[in-house]
Amino acid sequence: MLPTLERTEGAIEIAVVGLDVEPAAVRAAASLLSEAERERATRFAFSRDARRFIVGRARLRQLLGARLGVRPESVELVNGARGKPALNDAERNSLRFNLSHRDDLAVYVLSSGSEVGIDVEAIRPLPDADTLAARFFSRREYAAYGALDPCDRPLGFFQCWTRKEAFVKALGEGLSHPLDSFDVSLAPGAPAELLRVEPGPGVDRDWRLTSFSPAPGFVAAVAAEVAEER
Length: 230
Fold this sequence. Notes:
Order of helices and strands: EEHHHEEEEEHHHEEEE
Largest sheet: 4 strands, antiparallel
Shape: globular
Radius of gyration: 18 Å
Structural class: alpha+beta
Strand order of the largest sheet: 1-2-6-5
CATH class of the largest domain: Alpha Beta
CATH superfamily of the largest domain: 4'-phosphopantetheinyl transferase domain
């Protein structure tokens, strides 16, 4: 089991959690969930997926509860119009958060007042990576991806994918936001950057991207709104 790791970058907090836990820990985690969440867990076809959901959602509640000063089970969560989770209590809505998981790894980002998005992927060869890149990457990104050495393309692909996903999740739009309307950097070793953004709702704010490896063989990205200086 991967332990919980937390770190702070400015006003942004990142947590990394392993979801492969013993049955007793799953039962303890389930006790922190709402009735609707426990019912949702029963609808997964595979026990592995139910366990990941239960542990991942319980850890989210613990992270939020610690920052709100309330018990994890009393945290009220809702989904936005595009499915982005948020706190139900309007008086506490300065706390922003987002989460993502791949396999038995979950990542979380929390911020006070700044919109945030996060995504994680396991770095692996995909037989249809070139087709997916042609379909979902912008023209500039696809050219940069095609210029990579073949051995660098799996990392380049998932660096691009996680950065784009983190950005649209921060916007609250998810994959409904046109993915060719902005460019991100993707080359291994290059800084994570938002290179171009077409005008549109929410994108007129300043944003920053950060990439990191939450565990060996994984890459993650965080998109965060840059808070205005006061």
